[in-house]
Amino acid sequence: MEIRATTEQDREAFVATMNSAFGLFPGPTTEDGGGAWWSAFELDRGLVAVADDGRPVGTAAAYTFELTLPGGAVVPVSGVTAVGVAPTHRRRGALTAMMRRQLADIRERGEFLSVLLASEAVIYRRFGYGPATWTNRLTVPRRRADLITPRAGGEDTGTVELLRSDDCQEILEDVYNRYRLAQPGALSRPHRWWALRAGQPPISPAPRYIVLHRDAAGVPDGYASYALGDLDRVTKTSILTVDEVIAVDDEVFTTLARTVLGHDLIGQVVFKHVPAWHPLRWQLEDIRSGETSAEEDWLWVRLLDVPRALAARGWIADGELVLDVDDAFLGERNRYLLTVRDGKAECVETEREPDLTLDVSDLGSIYLGGATPSTLVRAGRIQAHQAGAAAVADTLFRTEQPPHCLHWF
């Protein structure tokens, strides 16, 4: 079994091998490949596993993204994707070999973080990835969708207009970019994605309506992308599904939500990506009308350089903690002294006794603030060696704004 890098000349074989691994068939594309979700692949960052007879039997790739960290820092990350092995060649070490080679390549690029969306939750912990953000689906019946009137000071002074996604791609790209720079856990959407119409709506060519919000000065600062399902002949209503609501603040989000919730001939509105901590449910006149479902892990995070990663994010409490971090997949185990002062961290190797012992995957889970160290201690994933160590870790890793990611890749 050989693991080798790919180039653009391998695109057709790479896509065919990836599709066979997932049991998929490629859909129709434009002549230049635009519009296909895989058209934004960076094949200079791809890997293929080749069997002894020369046939490609496995794939792995990575996108070049930026990730917004707690505190507002924006850092380069690798977005791992298209990881699969043909059914005929599983359990032969191809996946492990590709993941090991890929992590080595990412380190060689100088990146200290890697992220992915896990198709199966049991696969990626053994490679050092931990679930770091979560998202929910929120369903609201149209007849019970009234929102409360905001208190004084929360009124929206902007305007909304209705557009089609094909007519406002540049605006959507700009608004999303403003949003992701302010939201911890959010990933960039490179211009290449928008230009190729790669990914999911509203990036893809799939028809969507866009409710666009502009501030009092006329500057776009939020949008909701949605589509209606088939009309039910009995109820004479449809289901309105919102792909995403992107807003620079809560007032803009509320205005966009109020607009889609007020659509005519709708039986229910489904918001595909609403974090559990979002205030939308509390804004419903009938709090029981909003039904959350399909809660799922979304972004998984992998640290490749613990000191750099911990020093890069922002911190809101002072303190120190000794972390014994086990990275079994890479055969590394190191003990670090994390010292936080005035919002900045220093992380150095130490011989002091540890406060916490944890796997690098669990460090990935708490890194963005989406999970608390004490929860993982109680779950038996992290070991606390001193009384109160988990509480100290909770205080240190706490963030002002919870992480959320809705970009699909």
TrEMBL record:
Residues 1-182 form the N-acetyltransferase domain. The keyword GTP-binding does not apply. Keywords: Acyltransferase, Transferase. The keyword Nuclease does not apply. It comes from the Bacteria. Acetyl-CoA binds at residues 83-85, 91-96, 119-120. The active site is at 124 (proton donor), 409 (proton acceptor). Belongs to the acetyltransferase Eis family. Homohexamer; trimer of dimers. NCBIfam families: PRK01346.1-4. This is GNAT family N-acetyltransferase. It comes from Kitasatospora purpeofusca.
